[in-house]
Amino acid sequence: MNRVVITGIGIYSCIGRNLEEVRNSLYEGKSGIGLDPVRKEWGFRSALTGVVNKPDLKELLTRRQRVGLSEQGEYAYMATLEALKVAGLDEDFLAKEEVGIIYGNDSSAKPSIEAFEQLRIKKDTTLIGSGSIFQSMNSTVTMNLSTIFKLKGINFTVSAACASGSHAIGLGYMMIKSGMQELIICGGAQEINYHSMGSFDGLSTFSVREQEPERASRPFDKNRDGLIPSGGGATVIIESYESAVRRGANILGEIIGYGFSSNGDHISAPNVAGPTKSLEMALRQAGIRANDVQYINAHATSTIAGDLSEGKAIFNVFGDSRPLISSTKSMTGHEMWMAGASEIVYSMLMMENGFVAPNINLENPEEELLGLNFAYNVVEKDINVFLSNSFGFGGTNSSLIVRKV
Amino acid sequence: MTREEIIDRVNGFLVEEFEVDADAIKPEANLKETLKLDSLDYVDLVVEIESNFGFKVKPEDFQTIHTFQDFYEYIIAKVKGPVETK
Q: Which of A42, A253, A300, B7 is buried most, with the most CB atoms less than 10 Å from its CB?
């Protein structure tokens, strides 16, 4: 079995457009949450959202390359450009070697809605234009990036709700571990437009603390009132240890465990048993004990039920070792399909720079979770091993463990 | 619209939407080669023509269009209403 290492990371999110900006935001506990007033005109309960600026790709990509790129594809492209640079992978390498891509994405609502709107008005399918089909499919990110970067290895999208990005990395890890691939661009992307958020808003799952957007996402806090939708793109380049050494690449970390499970329960309500099983499997796969994990980047989205059940699952497995815990969603909001990948990037930045980012807005933790070791403020600490949780609708759970090399 | 206005508008969307260098647009130049059109680009060309001139191009019509001049003449002939000439 091959060892699987991380040699490149890249990020484009509401707390920064690159690794440096994001590292600073994480350290300073800076929120990326704001308001999108148009949502109120459309009858949303909440106008709260992560605020991500659209990148200008005109100088970077040709018209044909841009036409099929969805909003989240643009974010993923920016993150991947940065990750490739960090990994020291250039066009020449991508052209000659077998590099794959596995990305998490579970919707592309806006182009479908716009195509239908055009069809309703024009009554002519040709007038929808050539880009819509490539923007609207769930695999929009992988089909576009594999074309832009001329990739020749494994090429598919993982759709697993809010655990998509985490499972994408987990599946890439398994492919490299087994020797089927040597180098894979993994990641997660999430559209942020209001078109894609209406049905989720309708479940009354979003925070309505609109008068103070930066304080609205408060995972584990007693006064939390829901999640805040967010998005962007995050890329994690993984490869076999042998490949990294052969290339002389800078090894940023090693993936040592991937645990997963399915709740076999309610479609949206979480439980404790499923995440507990995922955590235990990740530890078993990694061959480490609970007290070897120094930091847990929690899935905690700031919903009433979800945070409590995850906290209980963490307590079940890590109650004695008490690793530091924070949910970076307190700053970013819930990056959904992207979150499993972005939270690996956030945790990698913490491990690289010797700190644990704060769980901002956590003032009064749930009493049942008082035994957990929350990072209320930034903590200066050398991390050698961290774990990142991601859970999604349908009860899909994923836990990844990464260690310093 | 005059012939010149139609030609200006065509050149305008070609430069803007198809990102061709304005200097490369010459009446005798080959449209497909100059714009580097692939099969998908023709779909977007249909969209642009409809959006600018209000009529739908039949895909087979492109078979007789080779140069920019052919393209201008095709659109001029299709634009509704009398075409003024200077």
A: A300
